[in-house]
Specification:
Distance between the termini: 25 Å
CATH topology of the largest domain: TIM Barrel
CATH class of the largest domain: Alpha Beta
Helix content: 40-55%
Number of domains: 2
Shape: globular
Bound molecules: iron/sulfur cluster
Length: 381
Amino acid sequence: MTDTLGLYFHIPFCRSRCAYCGFYSNAAAVPDAYIDAMLREVELRSRTFHQDVDTVYFGGGTPSLLTAAQLTRLITGIRQHFPVRPDAEITMEMNPCDMTASFLETAYSLGVNRLSVGVQSKDDRLLQAIGRRHTASEAKQAVKRAYRTGFRNISIDLMYELPGQTAEDFRRSLVWAMHLPITHLSIYSLILEEGTRFTQLAEAGKLPRPSEAESWAMYQLMCRIPPHYGFDRYEISSFARKGFESRHNEKYWRLDPYLGFGPSACSRIGHERWQVLPGTRRYMHELLLGHEAPMEREALSEAEEMEEYCFLHLRMQRGIPLADFEQRYGAPLEHWYGAVLETLTREKLIAEKEGRLFLTARGAALGNTVFESFLRSDDIE
Ligand code: SF4
């Protein structure tokens, strides 16, 4: 576990809601009072936490909806209250529609050094179907503009299993993406999240879904094409050129300490986890009255934490560092999961090498099945 801290800032505002998105956000501009509330939360938290900060992440929602003045106030305030290291990774999620030259220059001059851009597909028909407001060509121009501004660590998101998408559509998106000036790629299949327009359509039988064979073909393309262009699959959904893995996301997967600010943001310090409750109005109201953000705390039992440790580490190509596990939980992994390990090894879903236990290619394709077998709190006294 590291001593340094990651900070996450949730900006729960979007211009409009995408049809598939289950993230907590409001379709509205960011009010200045939201920045006031966040800065208040920053000040309150900084009284307790004094560690150096080596990653900062602005996520959402759509952080690129912030005005230049709001972003400047927020980043300046964070630096005033937390010791952000000079070499910290500072990531901002951006929507291609907001990536004007002037906004990019502001972000760059404030020290943002990594962008995560929601590109999703190179197919305008699909972009429209999922409710994105940009075309593929606009997304490409935005990424190139960011590169010209000076950003040398740019990640994009792509999606597959979209309604009406074929494996050939997805192949074209992947190859197209490989020719953008990017260092990192996150690839997600469409998940039908509760409460989204897509879920309603699916329930009404009106959402075309790819066949199993088509889904498998897309998965295979995802496994093959980025590595062919030098992007290593270092995590189940993430691909990076060497040295460009997301340092912030790695904190989540390694159970390292991080603080989350803003409604619905999660924090983890040691064995404790808490989440600021969703509800932007209430969040602003409480903080502007000088109170703490309303939150729910959760002390994880050792069994629960061990489960999380296992499946989050297994998401990463490097897998579970067995000596670290033993040191942390007082006994080797086999002590807790002997039968599970035996079955998964026999089925060639996991393998062990140089003190690490990791998913095989077959295990990665059946990731959820493997992760579920580590959920066994009830069996542990
Ligand atoms: S996908 Fe991004 S832009 Fe679309 S609604 Fe969700 S958070 Fe907002």
